[in-house]
Amino acid sequence: MGKRSVSSFLILVVLCSALVAIVGGAYEDEGRRGEAGGGEGGAGWSEGGGAGAGGGEEGGAGMRQGQDQFLLRDSEYVVKTDAGDVRVVRGVGGRFIKSPLHIGFITMEPRSLFLPQYLDSSLVLFVRRGQAKIGHIYKDKLVEKNLKTGDIYRIGAGFPFYLNNTAEGQRVHIICSIDTSDSVGLQPFQSFYIGGGRYPASVLSGFDPFTLSMALNVSIVEVGELLSRQIGGPIVFHNVSHSPWTKFLNLEDHQKLAHMKRIVHIGKEGEEEEKKQPMWSLRKFLMTSIFGSENKKREVKRGSSEGRDPYNIYDKKPDFKNDYGWSIALDKSDYSPLDESDLGIFLVNLSAGSMMAPHYNPTATEYGIVLRGTGTIQVGSPNGSLAMNAEVKEGDVFFIPRFFPFCQIASRTGPFEFFGFSSSARNNKPQFLVGEDSILKILRGPELAKAFGLSEERLDEIVDAQSGSTIFPSATVAPPGVILGLQVEVGKAKEVAKMIRTFGNDKIMDFD
Ligand SMILES: *[C@@H]1O[C@H](CO)[C@@H](O)[C@H](O)[C@H]1NC(C)=O
Ligand SMILES: *[C@@H]1O[C@H](CO)[C@@H](O)[C@H](O)[C@H]1NC(C)=O
Ligand SMILES: *[C@@H]1O[C@H](CO)[C@@H](O)[C@H](O)[C@H]1NC(C)=O
Ligand SMILES: *[C@@H]1O[C@H](CO)[C@@H](O)[C@H](O)[C@H]1NC(C)=O
Ligand SMILES: *[C@@H]1O[C@H](CO)[C@@H](O)[C@H](O)[C@H]1NC(C)=O
């Protein structure tokens, strides 16, 4: 009985989702067509000028009838700076193919750096010409390889990497596939910059300064220093000074405008797109995880699952434990039936005031249920704004999209305990942004320092201030005045960052 109504409910959900998918698909096509019309034509390397997305070719994108109907002529810049650019030719998607393969063209000028980042898509790089050093976090280590013409290299979704064109006088041209099957739905792919400042924003910028000050164990002023300097965009020259922002502020207005024109970010930052995204993720989750797993579970029940023993989560030793809390994660290696549902399970207990450090899940979305106490969940957007800052209490359920940085903080009144599912039975190794063994520590070096616009020594000081890992104690309370003042500062910084982006996009419109 109960089971039947569950399955008819699921069928209903799937029908609705399918409907939404079809309607959504149609909208996406519409949006894409409009946008491609404004984009640049031609898929060859664009040498020098031709920066602005002028009138482009008239309207038609996607499939054309006739002899050239399988030529993908339209491309769009997703990154464009003085030091390099990334252009994408969208693959053929649409109503029924939800995750097309896109083709990316990365060009980097001599002595330039593509800032450390991870993507929601996996890449297979082909070095067409030139050479570059790639730094890549793989199995919790920084792997550095020198790539030369003809080399092929794969970077999985969610794994941080940077590219350094070390050559004195040679551009590097890279062609890559962009596999969007893991995509969070932001098109054509979404970068999450590890190091950054005002432009591009670091994934850390999404957290409020007080949270970051607690996580990094540095003052709020130092947090400001870390997250305010970079304005050069995603690809920067090695030789540009450490504080281009101050220089920028000192320019005359017409010079600022000229500078802006050069560093415009021609991205698809449409708010509609981003608003659509949570629903899309939810739909994807429903389609792939819950429905898929229900199906499989039913098949299994008929067969061999009889007589399997349950697994008690409290019998497992915490995977991590310190004075401020502990956490347990279960995957299929602990309890094999989880594999059939493709789900993982976690349980976390934070003592009063403690924090689960900012981290992201490279392979899974996460649903959490508060078992005890109250706390705050903060989630950052890839563009460096705060996507969520919510107080939760016992019984509340929260959702964390894959790749989005987040942290949980227990309120000061008592312990905060939560349980949850992650949408992958494989060991979903969360990637910590801060603390021992964190991405900031693994990636540190000239590239990361450059990305934050700091000297290596200064970056080391900031990164080394936090010697703990995973769960951090509560911060000493700062006097309210300090926080207020700082929030005003940070607010101003965010305004300016927003201005740069809007300004950039506006400029592109009437720029030829
Ligand atoms: C940095 O290097 C680039 C290319 O090598 C050059 O065009 C530019 O003028 C240099 N900028 C400075 C500030 O030295
Ligand atoms: C969680 O930690 C608190 C102390 O911070 C402790 O009192 C409580 O028993 C713990 N909960 C579980 C389920 O172990
Ligand atoms: C890039 O590579 C060059 C040459 O190996 C090196 O000097 C430089 O420190 C690296 N990183 C940056 C950000 O310049
Ligand atoms: C935080 O920084 C203080 C010095 O400012 C240091 O004494 C303390 O050990 C640091 N805590 C951690 C967990 O690294
Ligand atoms: C950043 O993205 C969020 C949605 O994730 C959006 O609400 C916000 O306006 C964006 N902020 C900027 C400065 O573009």
Automatic annotation (TrEMBL):
InterPro entries the UniProt entry points to: Cupin_1 (IPR006045), RmlC-like_jellyroll (IPR014710), RmlC_Cupin_sf (IPR011051), Seed_Storage-Functional (IPR050253)
Biased composition annotated in UniProt, kind: Gly residues: 36-63
Disordered: annotated segments: 33-63
Domain annotation Cupin type-1: ranges: 69-224, 311-460
Alphabetical keyword list: Signal
Pfam families to which the protein is assigned, alphabetical: Cupin_1 (PF00190)
Secretion signal, residue range per the UniProt entry: 1-25
Record-given protein name: Cupin type-1 domain-containing protein
